[in-house]
TrEMBL record:
Reaction equations catalysed: a quinol + 2 Fe(III)-[cytochrome c](out) = a quinone + 2 Fe(II)-[cytochrome c](out) + 2 H(+)(out)
The protein's Enzyme Commission number: 7.1.1.8
Pfam families, per database record: Cytochrom_C, Cytochrome_CBB3
Natural source organism: Paramicrobacterium chengjingii
Gene3D superfamilies noted in UniProt: Cytochrome c-like domain
Record-given protein name: Cytochrome bc1 complex cytochrome c subunit
Lineage of producing organism: Bacteria, Bacillati, Actinomycetota, Actinomycetes, Micrococcales
Length: 267
């Protein structure tokens, strides 16, 4: 009887395992949130504080050009998402590439001539960032395209090539969306796209790709952009599709033309 009582006391409650898992998830989630907040704060701390004049200019520009869709307090509307927490990098990317203000509703915003000067873009970015912390405009030391091109090319193939093509030529996605080509894109905008994840692109924060990794990816992209194709005409760098189409049209077309010419000569 004594033995039976002891074993009964040592038996674990059926919900003990569930409680342990819940506690583990709670602590791991809290640690990740704290780490993400610390990373965002560190990014923000590297940026010099904006002047009051710049913030006032940004407020005027935002009210005149952005508030209709994004709300006066950046809360978002049915026509545009909230901008709270997007940071300076997102504004610099969207406005600096001409995607915003949006020209027309569609599957995704397209690149077009930018409508704001660099100083006005910086004022808009500073004003949006003043509401809530977010990714800052990258430091110049990560934009020199002097990193490790081999490492950058490997990282690009692993993380980016499935959408942007292994040569950065872009590619089609679903529902009329697409991954844009990366040729002619500035180093700053490439970096900002990685840390903000515009439209269909995932976010690559410093926990996924370090600033040095992002520098290496930029280096690889600029190397491919500035290095002539060793195989001759790139044909859009779309691979066997464009190459096969070229052979089909011009190769077979040439054979047919020669055949017609020989037949005409023989007659």
């Amino acid at each position: 009887m004594a033995t039976a009582k002891v074993s009964k006391r040592g038996r674990r409650h059926p919900l003990a395992n569930v409680a342990l898992i819940a506690i583990g998830l709670l602590f791991s989630g809290g640690a990740y949130a704290a780490f993400s907040s610390a990373t965002a704060s560190a990014d923000e701390s590297t940026k010099a504080p904006s002047s009051q004049e710049q913030l006032e200019n940004g407020e005027k520009l935002f009210a005149a050009n952005c508030a209709t869709c994004h709300g006066m307090n950046l809360e978002g509307t049915s026509d545009g998402p909230s901008l709270l927490g997007v940071g300076e990098a997102s504004v610099d990317f969207q406005v600096g590439t001409g995607r915003m203000p949006l020209q027309m509703q569609g599957p995704q915003a397209r690149v077009k001539p930018k409508q704001f000067t660099e100083s006005d873009t910086a004022a808009l970015a500073a004003y949006v960032a003043s509401f809530a912390p977010g990714p800052a405009v990258p430091e110049e030391k990560y934009l020199d395209a002097q990193g490790d091109a081999a490492n950058g090319a490997e990282l690009f193939r692993i993380n980016c090539a499935m959408c942007h093509n292994v040569a950065g030529a872009g590619g089609a996605l679903t529902e009329g969306k697409f991954a844009p080509p990366l040729t002619g894109v500035t180093e700053a905008h490439i970096y900002e796209a990685m840390v903000t994840g515009p439209q269909n692109m995932p976010v690559f924060n410093d926990a996924n790709l370090s600033p040095e990794d992002k520098r290496d990816i930029i280096t690889a992209l600029k190397y491919m952009e500035n290095t002539p194709s060793v195989g001759g005409f790139g044909l859009g760098s779309l691979g066997p599709v464009s190459e096969g189409l070229f052979i089909w049209i011009f190769g077979l077309g040439s054979i047919v033309a020669i055949t017609v010419w020989i037949t005409a000569k023989s007659n």
